[in-house]
Amino acid sequence: MKKRKNSDAPHIDRHVVDNMNKVMTTNDGVPVYDNNNTLKVGDRGPSLQQDHIFFDKLMHFDRERIPERVVHARGSGAHGYFEATADMSEYTSADFLKKGTVTPLFVRFSTVAGFKGSTDLARDVRGFSVKFYTQEGNYDLVGNSIPVFFIQDAMNFPDVIHAVKPEPNNEIPQAASAHDTFWDFISLMPESAHMSLWVMSDRAIPRSLRMIEGFGVHTFKFINSAGKATFVKFHWKPKLGVHSVAWNEAQKISGFDSDFHRRDLWEAIENGQFPQWDLGVQLIAEEDEMKFSFDILDPTKIIPEELVPIKIIGTMTLNRNPENFFAETEQAAFDPGRVVPGIDFSDDPLLQGRIFSYMDTQNYRLGGPNFHELPINRPINGKYNNQKDGFARMDILKGNSSYFPNSQGNGCPFQAMMKGEVGYQTGKQQVDGQKVRARSNSFADHFTQARLFFHSLSAEEQNHMINAFSFELSKVNKEEIRKRELAILYQVEPALANAIGKNLGLKPSKSLDPLTVKFAKQNHPNYPIQPNKPEVEKSAFLSMKVKDDEGTIASRKIAFLVDDGVSKKSVDIMRKALTKEGAMVVLVSSHVGSLKYKEGDMEEVQHSYLTDGSVCFDGFYTPDGDMVDKLAQNPDYLQFINEGYRHCKALAFAKSAEKLMDKSFIEKDSAVNCESSGSNWINDFIQALKKHRIWERENSRKVPS
Length: 705
Ligand code: HDE
Fold this sequence. Notes:
By secondary structure, the chain is an alpha/beta fold. The protein is built from 18 helices and 18 strands. Helix 5 runs parallel beside helix 10 (about 450-455) and helix 12 runs antiparallel to helix 13. The mean pLDDT is about 95. The protein binds CIS-heme D hydroxychlorin gamma-spirolactone 17R, 18S. CIS-heme D hydroxychlorin gamma-spirolactone 17R, 18S (HDE) binds next to strand 2, strand 3, strand 4 and helix 9.
């Protein structure tokens, strides 16, 4: 197959409209002479009903909003491409996974609970949807940033979402799970224990959308050209590593810049720092379906990488921002039911429910069955069938036959089989059983993998989780709910429950609440069922701790804290070293506009201590200069460095600025780098920035901010 470039996406480019140098027209192309005044009798009115130009404008305006997504309403999108790098023909016939094939794609990241205008830094799972425009049709991999889900069966989906969304009587709170109805539901559904730990971990407050992992969550199937199936789990691994902010930071970012993640993604792409992810797969032979201590069809379970290693099969690069948010990001219609030849569903009962829901929701949200024809949703290989009419049909189907079989249209479009082609083939599978509404006993172990997750985290990550649970449960008003959840957490790990209990002033019960058991018995009448012994009790792949040989400062935002009189030389030495590593240097001063250097030069500054918070940056440098004494008197500067220190970020001080530390709570450590400590101080600063955060610093925290 011909190698394709990302720019090769004519289905979108063909529809881009450019108003530049054009005369304004109505929607029918009639030139508009005056776009300021309605048609009136005399210049003081009244207005006339015959003002078709005004009606044309207002009628459109009145219909500008469409329903936001029920979940994942808040999202940010980007275009890019996927390059397949491994020979996967043994497992799948998917054309876009043939080694060397380049496929254009569109990605949408999202939060789940908040409305369309909610803050990016909400504690939440992130949606990670990818639409591959393959030569065999669109393939949507609609995943999340957390590898498991709250529930096991699609029947409970509206319930979990109703529970997490703002409460129905007062519509409070926005984009937050810290409220009674959410924890009421979670504490009655022990199957949600595993995911609730992930959502209370730092994974739920990412530093950047460019630094999250993506997971297909369900087990899917690959089908090869001989029809043989292999179970597969999908993983996206970010090249920049997986990183999060501190909860205190997240809360403040929401105030300074509630578009923080959207802006970060946009700016990185505009700056040419294209985010990349490797696509990995875990492959499980069909005959091994039942060989694990857990059920691979259960979406509340991971397959530890120690059991089935991840094989990297390609790389995704995001290199183009949308031209128009609404037309592209908002109208993008993702659907896990959109699969291409070589990819098939497993019987995971959550996945099976999704195959219905997404198409149904798009039909409603995008106003009818022709949403496939919107530029962002169009398959690049064309669509040819006999489906016709419906709201806003865009294609003009030629000829008089729109049925099959026909002779009038030469039998077209042909079924693939009539052309000797394979087309989409569902994998053959033996199915035999009674029709029942029931849940398999192999889905009844709710705590073993939650425990695995907790035990696999670093001490700091465990602490963050304890604090997150304490924060959330403190916001729950009903004590019975707090107690019920603590009892679940006790089953996961007594140390976790005891630490949270201390913060709540409660002693956790050692056994599950009778109401939790009552509900669990509805799915598993013999609940609790003795779990199988797990193969792995600790996994090396679940902690986000940065290993020594990992880490990059590429695209990291480093604030240079300055004021008039700062030394240009001192700024430039550090700026050169950091930008060489790909970091973004941002000057923050006491005012925006022209900054006057000690040497007399001027530079434009767009950020000030008033407009930006320390939480918007990854590290801080205070250069030399005549402004040092002034900064010592500037409480906003002092808050910047104190807070940066509190949030465990790296700080550097040029020689004459070191005395500013005396005005702060900062104590020297491996990530507080001073010029006077030796010639390696700039490199030490870079190494500290590569670590992302020095979380250990939290253990001796003294900063009150
Ligand atoms: Fe979704 N989900 N979901 N979901 N989901 C939607 O589709 C649904 C689930 C996910 O960027 C909706 O277009 C059901 C798991 C993402 O546009 C809706 C069930 C995972 C997105 C819907 C699930 C996801 C959605 C709302 C349980 C991770 C955003 C608007 C059976 C693997 C897509 C829309 C985008 C969106 C239904 C569970 C991920 C209502 C019924 C598990 C990333 O159709």
